[in-house]
Amino acid sequence: MEIEALVSLRSAESPAVGRDRIRLLEAVAREGSITAGAKAAGITYKAAWDALDAMANLFGQPLLEKRTGGRSGGGATLTPTGIKVIEAYHKLEVEMARVVRSIEPHLSGTGISPLNLVSGVLMKTSARNALRGTITQIVSDTVACEVAIKVNEDTTIYAVVTQESLKALGLCIGREAVALIKAPFVIIAPGKSAPPMSVRNCVAGQVRRLTPSEVTTEVVLDIGGEKSLAATITAESARSLGLEPGKPACALFDAAHVILAID
Questions:
Q1: Torsion sign, CA atoms 85, 14, 169, 146
Q2: Is the dihedral of CA 155, 161, 166, 169 positive or negative?
Q3: Average model confidence (pLDDT) across the chain
Q4: Amino acid 125: pLDDT
Q5: DSSP-assigned states of every residue in 180-216
Q6: Which residue stretches belong to region Required for dimer formation and molybdate binding (predicted)?
Q7: Using 50, 70 and 90 to split pLDDT, how confident is the model at 238?
């Protein structure tokens, strides 16, 4: 059986950056725009934006330099970081293939293939938001802990985990972690500041885009530092709140709805 290595770049469970997203990044750079790159990669414009947002959140640096409007229209080119990410990914693919081939003899007779081994180690998550940051504070009691993760200069996300999880994950101040938040758990409030609520997290940003359907609307906020946060709200709520691209808004969610993951 021919062995093929599939590499995922990630800081924790995902959204992972794998071959499909690297190919999308290459396609956008090659075609010169996100629209054309999405078409070349065989995915929708929305799916391309979601993937590019995930990559920016994961690496914390822009991989594309985007241009909007102008006489020549919009476009996109790779940043130096984007070039390095693509190069590193392909080098990892080559090295992973070599490693996987080298361990195949050691698994002979066990009923476990290298493919089983690798796929069992790699894991994915359904959480729409995966924001990487650094743990800056841990407040503990006998049962639970509140962990603060700084994801950019202006944004800190708070998560509540058990003491057992704190120890099992090895969480400590200064360590990097990824905050996972499902989009339906996020509430959107228009304006630069939200009304008083009992939720622990209030992340200010600017509406980057809206993707409406008959029942729901996905709202993506630009929260600075090349990172974004997505929420799924009802279409009627999006209309009544007057949400539009470029307008300020806040994302609100409870600390108990934040899952932490580590490398």
A1: positive
A2: negative
A3: 81
A4: 57
A5: EE-GGG-EEEESSSPPP-S-SEEEEEEEEEEEE-SSE
A6: 125-133
A7: very high
| Greater model confidence, 111 or 20 | 20
Residues 6 or more apart whose Cβ sits within 8 Å of residue 78:
25, 29, 63, 64, 65, 86
Q: What backbone phi and psi angles, to 5 degrees, belong to 180?
A: -105, 125
| Distant-in-sequence contacts of 182-185, Cβ < 8 A, 24+ apart | 182/126, 182/127, 182/128, 182/129, 182/257, 183/128, 183/129, 183/218, 183/230, 183/231, 183/232, 184/231, 184/232, 185/253, 185/254, 185/257
β-partners of residue 248 are 206
Cα separations (Å) of 220 from 54, 98, 187, 191?
12, 40, 12, 15
Angstrom distance (rounded) from CA 230 to CA 11: 19
Q: What is the DSSP letter of 74?
A: -
- Which domains are assigned to the chain? 19-121 (1.10.10.10), 126-263 (2.40.50.100)
113 touches 107 (CB < 8 A) = yes
Token duo for residue 129: 């938001």
Lowest-pLDDT range, 101-105, 134-138, 170-174, 244-248? 101-105
For residue range 105-141, list pLDDT tens digits in order.
766 666 555 444 444 334 455 678 888 899 999 998 8
The conformational region for residue 145 under phi > 0 = left, psi -120 to 50 = alpha, else beta, is: beta
